[in-house]
Amino acid sequence: MQNYNALLARLAEITHLRRASAVLGWDQQTYMPGGGGMARAQQLTALRKLTHEMFTAPQTSELLAAAETECAGLEPESRERLTLRLVRRDYDKAVKLPLSLVAELAHATATGHQIWVRAREHSDFSAFAPTLEHLIDLMRQQAEAYGYEERPYDALLDKYEPGMKTSEVEAVFDALRPGLVDLVRRIGAAEQIDDSVLRRDFDKEGQQLFGEYVAARLGYDFHRGRLDETVHPFCTSFSRNDVRITTRYERNWLPAALMGTIHETGHALYEQGYDPADDDTPLQRAASSGVHESQSRLWENIVCRSRGFWKVYYPELQRHFPGVLDEVSLDSFYRALNRVTPSMIRVEADEVTYCLHIMLRFEMEKGLLDGSIAVSDVPAVWNEKMRDYLGIVPANDAEGCLQDVHWSGASFGYFPTYALGTILSAQLFDKARSEISGLDSAMAQGDFSGLLAWLREKIHRQGGRWLPAELVQRACGEPAQSSSYLNYLNSKFAEVYRLESASQAV
Amino acid sequence: MQNYNALLARLAEITHLRRASAVLGWDQQTYMPGGGGMARAQQLTALRKLTHEMFTAPQTSELLAAAETECAGLEPESRERLTLRLVRRDYDKAVKLPLSLVAELAHATATGHQIWVRAREHSDFSAFAPTLEHLIDLMRQQAEAYGYEERPYDALLDKYEPGMKTSEVEAVFDALRPGLVDLVRRIGAAEQIDDSVLRRDFDKEGQQLFGEYVAARLGYDFHRGRLDETVHPFCTSFSRNDVRITTRYERNWLPAALMGTIHETGHALYEQGYDPADDDTPLQRAASSGVHESQSRLWENIVCRSRGFWKVYYPELQRHFPGVLDEVSLDSFYRALNRVTPSMIRVEADEVTYCLHIMLRFEMEKGLLDGSIAVSDVPAVWNEKMRDYLGIVPANDAEGCLQDVHWSGASFGYFPTYALGTILSAQLFDKARSEISGLDSAMAQGDFSGLLAWLREKIHRQGGRWLPAELVQRACGEPAQSSSYLNYLNSKFAEVYRLESASQAV
Q1: pTM of this prediction?
Q2: Which long-range contacts (CB under 8 A, 24 or more apart) does B326-330 make?
């Protein structure tokens, strides 16, 4: 096992350096003073260039090949073989990218982000259009460099959802769409919910304390993490024992920070829950962006937007904001938190309309990549699709096609994983419920340890051993499906909106 | 200039990576959760190993030699020749260290810090002793690897005070000691000062706001820096435009955070004041740790413990703490702030006894390095020396031999520079006063811009062009001397303590 061990030692060094980059990225978004930006970009560029060079160096290739020979006799599902399969996949992908394209992408995204920020501030898509044009060109080059069997978009999707094809995403979305559209229609016809209780005056300190309180209750270990404030909330980690989350406070909109904190807590529980035996090895990573998102959405929506959760924690919330929610009933609060309404901004969308926002972006990305949508037409096509899907039209580019950061960062192919994760969260929860006796009653008393233990075993501790499709099959005993999610939505929102039970069968 | 430019480009990459290490170090001491320590040690080790490898690689040596040939015809004091002199000095030193020792030191210090923090919390030297033993062994190896003409300690001292010998430090201290001891004795015989006004209830927020207010008044640019809270205050920088300081708040001891903040501000003014033309070049660095300390001590003591400073800012301080200092006169406050009394904690020592704390540590380090002091005897020897020098004995290790962070960071050889810098601060201020017309009256109105401009020109913008001895000669027109410092102390404290003027001649 000499070569295998030498390979792992080399990869561990690279991991340490990548984690150093992550620390710099965290600092950049949390505490870095304004003046520090230029030097920080240089530091990050130097580090990323170096780790790419180290990973794609001939030494890696030689050690990998030698380790593969060394381990060829082992079981295909042995730790060593699974590790080598993962590294081989990464390596073969990484070496396909010419260094010039890596450098050009780094530069284009670094400058692209600034241009997007300004364009969004001025709600002016035309200021971002040339940058987007250039980034799409680079995305096409990247897709060609990686290669694909069916469609160029496959090559980009594979970065975030290994092994998944564009056509498979289309099949999932096609199966989901009619049910969602029908549910939105039925909710639209029902009596609307007033969510003004969530727009009262919630002081920031109370929001932070309650957010930390809930995160800890869900199982987030603050000895191995911390919560900070940023413009764009995120979760990042520098090891299994240093997994940090951030949130954004809005004084007059309680869900922004609270549900954001819980969402990131879900991501953090995944990374804090990796197998300690995988520390510093290639296996210690998420199976995919979609699986990662399934964890954040499961805790955010299925657990923490449930009536059972608030039966236990609503009194605690009321205590955190004396005088603010005293006369508001649990039922009013619960229904306000689950209000469904077509809205412009994806990250603020309710559970029912959320995936429609994703389908729109998926279609835009495919069209931009294959040229069937021209960059100059992006605002018009976006608005048209918003009317089709949600019946509303953005008043400007800032609340329309400029709202998301992803394109400026060349993250084409990422959006679908938000929906895939959301769909998977319901399937996983169904399975957990069927396997854990007394889960509902434990959760009704605010005890999530059984659910967390199940996720730890089935998902978290598996790390990156399996392709996402394999992981779902192993955890659920069936392939990924969207019926759990549709059933969950129909059942939950029939109750929230007091819909006719007849319409629930979709 | 092809080789010279290629050398600078290579060194700039290394600088970016070193700065990345500094970010990780800052995070480690400010916000890192407890669980993150082990992985952080690995990250820092990987980065430091890598930068050492890059700097000592044959490519550096070849480029350096070629650049030296290329620039041989230029003036010795040309930018290029000064740069190459500095790089040559660094390179010749760095290649002497085996990579294994670099890695072992990086790891030992990263873990050592955590162990020291816990040992200090529990005031238990024995918990830190094995770590210290190991670090001293590494220090001995380092001294042997660097080599020295006279004594092993020279090799360590040279890291912080380039070109200075242990025997020279001893000569400076020998010259200083009698005057300090005499002044301490005379002050001891005088009527004592009551500093209880500084022990009133100063809320943390007020302390932070006033500290930031003063730092900004002195010239610290918060757009290019920030103030945080740590166990051990420090200043660090990731570029000229991201220079951060930290402090430690004590609710019932105003000077801890306030004078600590000002001290670190002095360091930060140095680094924020480097020449922009030197950005990312080897010239952008401090001349030495002693010169660095001269800046912090100048602002902390000579400026901000002066009667003139408080004439302007005492009313502002009173406003920051309503009701706390209302009836306390400026004179009482000023004298309390300048109370001289033997004390346990170096960083809280008054100006007169401060250098005695340093002499103690200098002797401890020399003894530990040459084996004449055993690690197990550190608490006893420390306490004995405290009795000798200051007539007091620590009640426990936390206020004794565990108080300083330095040994856990393998910073043997650093302590003497605190005294050297303190001594230099008075010499520099004397010179500034003689060259800036109206300095006293400007400062009496709270205007420090003239002093800062002088320091910018003579010290800050010079960066690392000159060896410390050269820099002092150029700035002051004479070699370093301690008479300015003794005169300053005698004159100031004769007034504060109303001593007999006859005894002032030392």
Answers
A1: 0.93
A2: B328/B197
